[in-house]
Write a structure and sequence with these properties.
The complex is a heterodimer of chains A (712) and B (123). In chain A, 44% of the residues lie in helices and 23% in strands. By secondary structure, chain A is α+β, with helices and mostly antiparallel strands. Chain B has one domain: Rossmann fold (3-Layer(aba) Sandwich). The longest helix of chain B is centred in the C-terminal third of the chain and has 15 residues. Classes of the chains: A alpha+beta (712), B alpha/beta (123). Chains A and B meet through helix 13 and helix 14 of A and helix 1 of B.
Amino acid sequence: MSAKRSTQMTRPQRQRGLARRQAALLRLSTEIASAHDEAEVYQSVVNGLHDEALGYNFLGIFLLDEETGDRVLQASIGWPDIQDDWRVHPGEGLSERAIKDGKLHYTPDVRRESQYLPSLASGSEVDVPLRIDDRTIGVLVVESSEPNAFGADDFEILTAAANQASIAIGRARLLAEERQRADEHKALLDTISDLSSELELSRVLQAVLERAVTLLNVTGGEVAIFEEEKGELQVVASQNIGKDSTGTRLKLGEGAMGAVAVTHEPLIIPSYHEWLGRSTKYADVTVHSVMAAPLLIGRRLVGAIATVHSDPERVFGPEDLRLLNLFAPQAAIAVENARLYTEAQRQKQYFEDLVLNSPVAIVTLDLQHRIVSCNPGFEQLFGYEREDVIGEELDPLITTEATRKEAVAYTVEARDRPVRGMGRRRRKDGTPVDVEILAVPVIVDGERVSILALYHDITELLEARREAEAANSAKSHFLASMSHELRTPLNAIIGYSEMLQEEVQDLGHLELTDDLEKIRTAGRHLLSLINDILDLSKIEAGKMELHLESFDVRAMIEDVTTTARPLVEKNRNQLQVRTDPELGSMYSDLTKVRQMLLNLLSNASKFTEGGTIELTVERTSESNGPTMMSFSVSDTGIGMTPEQMDKLFEAFSQAEASTTSKYGGTGLGLAITRHFCEMMGGDVHVESGPGQGSTFTIELPVTAAKRTGATS
Amino acid sequence: MAKILLVEDNEMNRDMLSRRLTRKGHEVTIAVDGQQGIDMARDGAYDLILMDMSLPEVDGWEATRQLRADAKTENVPIIALTAHAMAGDREKALEAGCDDYDTKPIELDRLLAKMAALLEDES
């Protein structure tokens, strides 16, 4: 455009060589227009005007330094002793006039001017201002060694050149500004991509800080992360603030970073040492001014950043704030990513340590059942080296022909759902190992990716269990045979004492009857103890069986009360029996029902004196359950505390050891009763309080289902 | 007054029970094992047999089965005597052909009642 305009500026030919001058001006315009930056503009102006066809031999371009008022030389021709950057101070040189009024000044004879600064060409001088947007930014100075060397044509050419230069300078400055912004954006982009690729938190924070210091061209700074659970900031990176502040903790509101963490707004502190909000933790820093900003993701605080100048000459301005506002969100994201990554790493590390140190064998399989990874626990349990098994199918390695099918079935099932089980596997050396197995599918984003299998060595556990079972069985067998062996002589004792009682009655030796009765009673007691022990050992050994038969309940109750009455009346107790009119029949184990009722009546009699013992029998029928027969034995005796009731149905646990000596009994009756009830699908329970008597209730299904006697 | 065969290997039990039954007016004959019990039951005419179940060689169940299989003895009432309710003893005894069952130690009145019931049926 400029080049075209200059061609349009064709004037009538008044002078020879005009065409050449036009061509030179065209070249000048083109040169100026194609300059890339300010320096090139200056250089092309002086070079172009120096063209042979124009013939300006002494010239220079000055820019005005607005702060000092100096004119600073940018480019020149014909002034060999003068450097660029030469400063012409206010009050010196003729060109000041053009600067001041923004107009072209011609001095036909410089030697008459007092302000003139002598040069090689001390004849005449033209000074043309350089103006952008009505503002004078500099001056073009053209000299000649001859006085009166310039005319209107020259003024026209030089004015045109100055205008073009001014336009080019303005454009170059815009361009430079754009370039600077482009650089900033590039720096930010670098920051983002670098920081995103760096995930170790401490390094990210250090990098964030370094970027900020470079970008803002500050002395130093710090970065803190916000610890939400503590509500505090912790300084995690520190650079060049006069001390290493890493590790410093700041409460919300404390210091510059604490302040921005509360306000969520950036803050500039021009003179830090005079600032009232400064933290005592920063009393010794060499900081002059501070600019701080919160690191936010949305409205959520993740940290804070502070940058400092320690040079009192440097101040933070709107441009710095603008840059920091661009930078802070990127830094916040980088910090947050790194924090999340660190957290994930920590968890990963935790699980890796768990797998590594677990005594349980842990192995990961692909969907073809090939081993992807295994832990030291696996190597130890099965005796394989890790390198030998990776990529191999698992099941053939740890099974025998006999267990292969079962093992594969587990693995196949584990592709879809968690599987648990126990089984026998084999080690590398062929020895068997009993294991508890847990296998689960690993599902990521709804897709099965692998199978995780855990093997826990339970050889010792099973061995211990087998031993315990064998010991238990031996104990039961011992008890059963001992009971049997004990009973034979006991039968003789009881039998002979009864026989003797009959004989002494026949023979009239009544004084012996009491002693014989004591022998007989003691013998009967010992027998019932042995019988109870035998019952319990049979129950524990799972050998107690039910012998189910139909019987009339009323007849059974009459039989039981007849047997129990002497026992009840021994302690001056009264026995009351209350029954439903229609009791009907039961299909159950008659012997055991009798035994249980006699046990309850016997207990009630023992612990009650001069009271009432009541047997209540009811046929109950729940809508959803089987028809039950309920037998309750209530007494008005000593009763029990809740603690005593807790242990009531356990073997060998009369309320206190002392009760055994006072009241007799084996302490096994209720334990047996409970087991019998369970075997018959029923239940026994008690209600009592100290001094309030006790009520024991047995509930049995009218029709018992045959069940095994094994109880735990 | 009845003729009773008591099959019992334990000497004291034998002595005790035979003496008590004798005192109650019964005529008691004794066999000391299963085989002897079978042989004596076939040879003599007894009103009732008291059979201990745990006998050496031929046990009480086997002896009962053989007696039931023999026309001469198939109708003689047999009461099984066993130790305290060993699992299934009662069923096994009734299955083998016993008419009733009682446990040791003997409660004489109870046993006499059971004997009386069977002897009454018999007559």
